[in-house]
Specification:
CATH architecture: 2-Layer Sandwich
Largest sheet: 7 strands, mixed
Structural class: alpha+beta
Shape: globular
Strand order of the largest sheet: 2-3-1-4-7-9-8
Helix content: 25-40%
Number of strands: 9
Number of domains: 1
Strand content: 25-35%
Order of helices and strands: EHEEHEEEHEHHEE
Number of helices: 5
Distance between the termini: 44 Å
Radius of gyration: 17 Å
Length: 189
């Protein structure tokens, strides 16, 4: 029997990394502030959207869950790399103005499929913890971890998301990669 909460989702992992621009500069305390600024800027792109189901931050990774039942969610997801690039430019400019000698960059992976939220209620004062079923979060997290190591392009979509796109959009994602047995594509370089 199918759970009524089970739905089509788009899972997106954004993994942030920083590069030291000055060899004798070690601002360990500022990296959480940079992640906070990035997340705040990224949230502004979702302010008017109704398809964002969940957002979670885990140190250097941000997991977004979009409603995959809405066709426009796929189009929006594919515009995220451009929006993230704009957000990174804003954050890096802000950091430069604050004399933070680090450069912030991101890797993005996207997957799609069926999932449902599992909510853990702890108390009335703490929002419920949400874990999504399926391997979508694990898959995109694995991909961005490999991408951050420099082993592939900075934006990949899985075959599960690829097959949900129109043929005209699929033709833009013609380069095939296999990373940890995950079939994925990137836009033509």
């Amino acid at each position: 029997m199918k759970n009524i909460d089970t739905r089509e989702v788009i899972m997106i992992s954004i993994r942030l990394s920083t590069k030291n621009l000055q060899t004798d500069y070690y601002p360990f305390i500022l990296e959480p502030e940079a992640r906070h600024l990035f997340l705040k800027e990224l949230a502004s792109h979702f302010a008017a959207r109704t398809d964002l189901l969940d957002i979670q931050q885990h140190l250097d990774e941000i997991l977004l869950t979009l409603d995959g039942q809405q066709t426009e969610s796929y189009t929006f997801a594919l515009t995220l790399p451009r929006l993230i690039s704009i957000t990174l430019d804003t954050c890096n400019a802000c950091g430069k103005n604050q004399q933070w000698f680090r450069s912030l960059s991101a890797c993005i992976a996207m997957d799609a499929g069926l999932s449902r939220p599992i909510r853990l209620f702890i108390s009335d004062t703490i929002p419920p913890l949400i874990q999504w079923t399926g391997l979508h979060a694990d898959r995109v997290s694995t991909l961005t971890q490999e991408m951050a190591a420099g082993n592939s392009p900075s934006c990949l979509i899985t075959h599960a998301l690829y097959k949900r796109l129109s043929p005209s959009i699929q033709s833009k994602y013609a380069t095939l990669y296999y990373i940890h047995h995950i079939c994925c594509y990137c836009a033509e370089l």
